């Protein structure tokens, strides 16, 4: 069998006893290491995987279909829930796409607010990864530290938008305005609340401390290193072939970041680096994310200095009719390239909305990467790919 | 021991030192039923209704993504303000219910209301044992109005 060739010589003696050819192991859909409802049908022999098939769709909520009978403002509320650990980052490409179709551009201040909140969402998403990845390797301490520190980020997002996970803050032509405020209004402009910059800078100082905590707890830990270094290596060509993006691609040495490539928010006025590693193994994917938290902190510090004063909303008719046309708009989500293909036939609702979700493309490498691996490594590799099942199934 | 990992595991013990340091610190947890967290003024807790401002225009019910607002009303004829003037009609609100079992707290209804009848309140303690009790009627929504905070000051 081919499996024999994949085994290390020292393990052959052990697996002769354990060999169970053709045994099928069902992992999931209810399994803690799949962060949700992913089912894996694995053909195994002993502890080694010969063939694996991910079965997805247990969390299909039909957002693409739902969007066909909803107005653009209502879809913004829905797309928050696709990748729920970074709700704000999902809204941005959708709104940018609709703005492109309508032909309006958000005022500068609104763009900067979008940029700051997207980076906050990126930090919060990566901190969730810092919880779940060591947890899957058996370490529960980082979870407590990272969730504690993520709370500071979520508080900032709640301060501005009113929601911790589902901000629903973007509107076509800007960020949430005092839409239709009447005369005796208690509602007013949803500009940043007073003291936001001060609190943000304080939280960024805390994040520096958090990054050091991560390094102490996880990066230096010999057990984590033994479980992840050299495990699940994805070469750059394979990563590109399978359409991976985001930190998973950059860990394989491809410096591809939409923030640099596609200038969708004023990232060109900010000095930051694209974090890349060359190994492409689980540990490198983890290190890229730690580096990205540091870069995001850097971006937010600069953005707080640069952000100009001004209006938050461009002039957009109250009943928004989007002209006929189609557009693909994309953005660098915490997990990679997130895109929406919007087809409009005129009117208040899109004719069709295709969501290019990041985790779905990143997950597609599983049948290739898991062949020949041990079952304990399966958990480490899947954890390092950092997918969210709501993002896979939509 | 491969991958250059040395036996006494210095990294592991460094991590454990951090764990110990954190252990002797005070825990940053709000012990909820005894100590209550104060939500931020913009928090989307519950929607309150100013029934007098409502003109039964149905915009909120139409814009709601999952259609959880139920409005009924009727029209009455109002006597003309001066003799010989036009007879005007006025809409009277009969029923305004929000089903919080369905609501997804997006805030679109509050945004679109052109007469300032809907406001967000940061109150959050209204869980129920029966799901049917989550349907708040006009009176209950009106009571929330007292808890609506003043909007926060803005960053200049």
Give a short summary of the structure.
The complex is a heterodimer of chains A (394) and B (156). By secondary structure, chain A is mostly helical. Chain A has 17 helices and 8 strands.
Protein architecture, described:
The complex is a heterodimer of chains A (394) and B (156). With 394 residues, chain A is mainly α. Chain A is built from 17 helices and eight strands. Chain B is built from four helices and five strands; from the N terminus they run H-E-H-E-E-H-E-E-H. In chain B, the strands form two sheets. Chain B has a three-stranded antiparallel β-sheet.
Helical element count of chain A?
Answer: 17
Q: Total number of helical segments of chain B? A: 4
Write the element-wise H/E pattern of chain B from the N-terminal end onward. HEHEEHEEH
What overall form of chain B do the CA principal axes indicate? elongated
Mean pLDDT of chain A: 83
Q: How far apart lie the N and C ends of chain A?
A: 39 Å
Instruction: Enumerate the spans of chain B where pLDDT stays under 50 for 5 or more consecutive residues.
Output: none
Supply database-style keywords.
A: 394 residues; mainly alpha; three-stranded antiparallel beta sheet; 17 helices; 8 strands; B: 156 residues; alpha+beta; two-stranded antiparallel sheet; 4 helices; elongated
Annotate the secondary structure layout.
The complex is a heterodimer of chains A (394) and B (156).
Chain A: H1 2-6, H2 9-18, E1 23-27, E2 39-45, E3 48-55, H3 63-66, H4 72-79, H5 87-102, H6 108-137, H7 141-161, E4 170-171, E5 174-175, H8 196-219, H9 222-228, H10 236-241, H11 247-250, H12 258-261, H13 282-306, E6 325-333, E7 336-344, E8 352-356, H14 358-363, H15 366-369, H16 375-385, H17 389-393
Antiparallel strand pairs in A: 1-2, 2-3, 4-5, 6-7, 7-8
Helix pairs in contact in A: 4-5, 5-6, 6-7, 6-13, 6-16, 7-8, 8-13, 13-16
Chain B: H1 10-23, E1 46-49, H2 59-63, E2 69-78, E3 88-99, H3 108-112, E4 118-121, E5 135-136, H4 138-143
Antiparallel strand pairs in B: 1-4, 2-3, 3-5
